[in-house]
Amino acid sequence: MQPLRAGKSMQTTYLLAIFLGGFGVHRFYLGRHVSASILLAITIVAVIAGTTSDSGTSPLLAVVWIWTIVDLFLIPAMVRSTRAPRA
Prior knowledge:
By secondary structure, this protein is mainly alpha-helical. It has one domain (10-74). The protein has four helices and no strands. It has helices at 10-20, 25-29, 33-52, 60-83. α3 (33-52) runs antiparallel to α4. The chain is elongated and about 50 Å long.
């Protein structure tokens, strides 16, 4: 039986998600680099599309916000997975 690894902080993850969630920083912190990079890319595209549109906003920003809100509910499981021993 392997000992539990020291995991990431739940409080830090929540703070990163709340303040920098649209950039995927909380996912980078938890080691989920692929999904964090996708979220960051969507955010960059949304900002560029918003600055070039007449309305000044992009529907992709809704995707980013929804993803971030869903992540707020998924954070406990993601943090637990960083603390679990690997087989």
